[in-house]
Specification:
Largest sheet: 6 strands, mixed
Number of strands: 30
Number of helices: 10
CATH topology of the largest domain: Rossmann fold
CATH architecture of the largest domain: 3-Layer(aba) Sandwich
Shape: globular
Number of domains: 3
Strand order of the largest sheet: 5-6-7-3-8-9
Structural class: alpha+beta
Distance between the termini: 57 Å
CATH superfamily of the largest domain: P-loop containing nucleotide triphosphate hydrolases
Strand content: 35-45%
Length: 584
């Protein structure tokens, strides 16, 4: 007998996603349906896996990665489009709540029915029922119809029935997530016992801590392909790092007014692409569109290239076109327009790709016409400051004539200088409701950084981090009190750090600089937060009166805190370290 419990070779699966359920019904009945009525989704692509008998394997990955599809193929619930699947042994699959039990039957009746289907003899039936009743701890609920059960109660019953008889292959897809922590612990112990008897387990869960308690091997799926396969610890660490980076890209894409897919096509940090955009000075596209017929770029040596105005979007220089988010509209084969076309981000972006780095003396030139009604800016994204900076303003005074707008770009040297200075972050124009103060000292930016000094919008609870508040003061400001307050979305103040409470004084602020706040480590628990920062004239901690401020930003900055790797239990708003000891 083969030592392999499961073997997959070149397995692929494609789904048709129909525009309307009616087309799906016709297709299921064998009627021909035009390919215009559906698109194709590649759920799995060329998957190769070998799983030895008795292995405990975790399938991890984000929603839509292909985990459930893979389990359905292995369990025989659907067929692959190509490739070979070999399963040696009887499979028990726990995949979807609400299947397998009759809702009108009681728990006991469903247990007996399921055991009969598994081939349990009448002589063993009562013992198995008693064991299941003991394991589930559902007591009198077993005499009630299953349709009255909560999701957690159903999960208890389904797991107990499936594991009473040792399966050769046990597949579990998230169903245990409906149960409580106590029952999950019982399930983990039972699954460990099953593997000691030779059972092979495939376990899908987004709860990495429970995965780590059970499994020795991890298979990370991403986009229908195997991203990594090996010992669970390094695979899970790599996966969690990827999740964190994805969250970082999400927050960063928001500051760039791009989608995550468009951000992935850029390599702003590598400084080989320049991201530019046309935007109304007041944030509103022009009422009369601005026509653009040519975009050229170069350096001190002359022109290096131009953007192909046919609208193709590749990895090189191109317009970033997306009618849902952007405000480009094609006029003809050689001309595009920036106007009020309903794009969510209200701008018209483009990217310029340089052969190596952004050269000294880099420039961009646009041939434009029209655009009256609203002043328009040509802006470049500064990855260090994480905001757009204005390169040129386009006047619509001579709207009927074509004009060339030439603007110098920020080069690698300038971006590096910004990065070394910087802490300026996403400082959009703030209204008087969001920002107020006398103005002798002004907060010009806020940045959060991890222990390595990398700029982050997401931090990890329990790890070292720091924040920097950038300021400028035209005249000396004496004895200001810097404060940072961090709020939950419901308005509850989760944490507040006040310089004077920590015994720190700033005798004098003048010119441009930054104030660093170290969190060694960050004790704030996981969650989404809004951050307020302020420079107060003075702060009396015993007074309830609102103190006078030089500058105050009231809950204007976003911060996301993630749990420590592998921790999925609730650790609260404060991740408080503690020392434990035994008293005798």
């Amino acid at each position: 007998m083969s030592d392999l419990a499961i073997s997959l070779r070149g397995v692929s699966k494609v789904f048709r996603r129909f525009q309307h359920p009616g087309w799906r019904a016709l297709d299921a009945l064998g009627w021909p349906v035009s390919h215009k009525r559906y698109d194709l989704f590649q759920a799995l692509s060329d998957v190769n896996i070998d799983i030895v008998r008795g292995e405990k394997v975790a399938l991890i990955g984000r929603n839509g990665a292909g985990k459930s599809t893979l389990l359905r193929l292995i369990s025989g619930q659907m067929r692959a489009d190509s490739g070979q699947i070999v399963v040696n042994g009887q499979v028990q699959a726990l995949m979807t709540l609400g299947t397998g039990f009759h809702p009108d039957f009681t728990g006991i009746e469903n247990i007996r029915s399921a055991l009969s289907y598994q081939g349990v003899s009448p002589s063993r039936m009562d013992d198995c029922v008693e064991e299941i009743a003991d394991f589930t701890e559902l007591d009198t609920f077993l005499q009630r119809p299953v349709k009255e059960y909560s999701a957690g109660m159903y999960a208890r019953l389904a797991f107990a029935v499936a594991t009473t008889i040792t399966p050769e292959v046990l597949i579990i897809d998230e169903i245990l997530g409906a149960g409580d922590a106590y029952f999950l612990g019982k399930c983990i112990q039972r699954m460990k016992a099953l593997t000691s008897q030779g059972a092979t387990i495939l376990f899908v869960s987004h709860d990495i801590s429970s995965v780590q308690m059970l499994c020795d091997r991890g298979i990370w799926l991403e986009g229908g392909r195997i991203r990594q396969d090996g010992p669970l610890l390094p695979v899970s660490k790599a996966y969690l790092a990827s999740v964190r980076e994805e969250e970082e890209r999400r927050v960063r894409a928001k500051s760039m007014s791009l989608t995550r897919g468009q951000l992935s096509a850029l390599t702003v940090d590598g400084a080989q692409n320049s991201l530019l955009r046309l935007v109304g000075v007041d944030g509103v596209p022009p009422s009369e569109p601005l026509l653009v017929r040519a975009i050229r770029y170069g350096d001190t040596q002359g022109e290096l290239g131009c953007i192909d105005m046919d609208g193709d979007q590749g990895s090189g220089s191109c317009l970033i076109v997306d009618e849902q988010f952007m405000n480009w509209k094609r006029i003809d084969q050689t001309c595009w327009a920036f106007g009020d076309y309903g794009g969510r981000y209200q701008h018209a972006p483009l990217q310029i790709t340089w052969p190596n780095a952004i050269p000294d003396g880099a420039w961009v030139q646009l041939d434009v016409r029209g655009g009256t009604g609203t002043p328009i800016s040509l802006e470049q994204y500064d990855s260090a400051q994480e905001q757009y900076c204005t390169l040129a303003e386009i006047s619509g005074d001579n709207a009927q004539e074509w004009q060339s707008v030439l603007a110098p770009l920020q080069t690698d040297a300038a971006l590096a200088q910004n990065k070394s200075a910087a802490v300026l972050a996403d400082l959009q124009e703030l209204s008087s409701d969001d920002r107020y103060g006398s103005g002798e000292a002004r907060i010009t930016g806020l940045g959060f950084f991890d222990a390595e000094g990398a700029r982050r919008h997401t931090l990890i609870s329990g790890e070292p981090a720091f924040a920097v508040i950038a300021f400028e003061a035209d005249l000396p400001v004496l004895d200001p009190v810097p404060v940072m307050a961090i709020y939950r979305p419901d308005g509850t103040c989760a944490m507040q750090v006040i310089a004077s409470m920590s015994g720190h004084r700033f005798d004098r602020l003048e010119g441009k600089g930054g104030i660093r706040i170290d969190f060694s480590p960050l004790l704030l628990g996981p969650g989404d937060y809004l951050v307020s920062i302020a420079l107060f004239r003075e702060l009396n901690l015993a007074s309830s009166v609102e103190p006078a401020s030089y500058d105050l930003h009231d809950r204007c900055h976003a911060l996301k805190v993630l749990p420590p790797p592998g921790i999925h239990v609730q650790i609260g708003v404060v991740n408080q370290p503690a020392h434990w000891g035994l008293i005798q």
